[in-house]
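Sample intake sheet
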Amino acid sequence: MSPQRKDKIPNKLTFGKYILDSLSVGMYSHPLMSLREYVQNSADAIDCLSRDQRNSPIEIVVDGRKRSLVIRDNGIGVSSCKARSSLLNIGCSEKDPTKNRGFRGIGRLGGLGYCDELRFTTKSKGESLISACTWDCRRLQHLISDPHTSTDTESLVEAITVFEQSNYPGSPVDHFFTVEMNTIHDGRNDLLNVPAIRSYLSQVVPVPFHPDFHYGKVIDKELKNCARSYRTYCISVNGQQIYKPYKDVVSLCRGTVDSIKKITFVELQEDAKILGFGWLGDLSLQGMVSPSTEMDGLRLRCGNILVGNKDTLSGFFRERRFNNYLVGEIHVCDNGLIPNSRRDDFEDSDLKDKLYSAFIREIGIPFSRKIRYLSSERSKKNSTSKNILFRNASRVVDRGYISELQKEEIIQNLRRINGNDSDCDKQFAANLVDRVLNSQHVLSVLSCQHRSNTDVINLFKKTLEVVYSETMNRIEFERLVKRLYDVILQESPSVVSPKVGATIDDELSKRDEIV
């Protein structure tokens, strides 16, 4: 019996050309995600500086005419001896995953799919050489899409990149890292849309609270004490500094506004270990916060960079929409919680499960119950108010209105019935509006019933008796009576003689002088 044939394993494994496509466009599905990666690398580079230099800015410049975007930082830079490997190697990094935000060595590939040329320039302090690496992204896309071209990743990188070093004309003490995206061609032009870039960065990257946010300093102080990886950086886009979007006044989806009355801090613990620390704005929980505020929902952050998006924590409430009733942040405190490569969640681990369990226990369930309770109470109150409104409107239709103001207020309130109200209530309110609009004044109704003047006067007397007996505030009643006197005198001046009125006024004046 002949021996069974065994296939030989090649001496060298091959990583095909599609690896680069997967690690660029495939990993960062939205163009602005590439900015997050570059800002993240800049923040890590600034953290390597001495403490007194950590206020170094990160500058982003967008040029719509040239279709270019430049990101520059004055971080530690890359030394000339390590520059080639650092800028060309893929998936290799010397960063510590427990200390640095980026450590997988793939973040700089984020812009490959959105421009024709990607260029990195860097210099380390004390050196005279400047290192530059240029990626021909246009050729990369051509080689990847060409079905007749088959090459491995290493050969592909060599074919589309140029690495060079030259003497630096500036001061040897300079240190920096620059990313240039030239001839940008993302389909939605997001990388050239300055307002969209500012909005995205304000919600995602580690920028400070706006000085006008009343609670910003208090939150900042607590986060620095409790979340060790929490830092903020001065980041600007075309010269305008970026701040987090939080404000004192909050717009709600129903067109109303609410305000943050105070800040509540919360610890997420498991087994006496603090996994997360966060803050929540104290709102009335009357409805969902409007997305236009860019601060709706509790946001999850690691190293003060957003993890996932604003809905990442929504699944841990009884109803996903409940997260949008809240404003605040949860910052990760444990170094064992590491964001995954797409940064849309954490790597699977026991710590991740414990963090989310603590969130459900401390925030998800309590706020779900509170929101439901308050919603139920509002529904009861609205139902009672609505029934009163319907009764008052029906009374006006049947008996007539007392004043034009009363009629207008009823019509306005009937027209506000919409949104969460039932179709039956909305239809009933719409019918009442038409009938109230066509209603008559109560005195006109009485005239139509052929009442005599004597009957109307007697009715008016009884009305005043009721007003007097039902009015507890006598000062208010006297003001009302004076107003009625003025109206009666204006309509029927012969009711009171001017001579008599003048005589009484004279007597009162003399009495005041004696007193």
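Comment: The mean pLDDT is 84. The CA atoms of residues 154 and 471 lie 92 Å apart.
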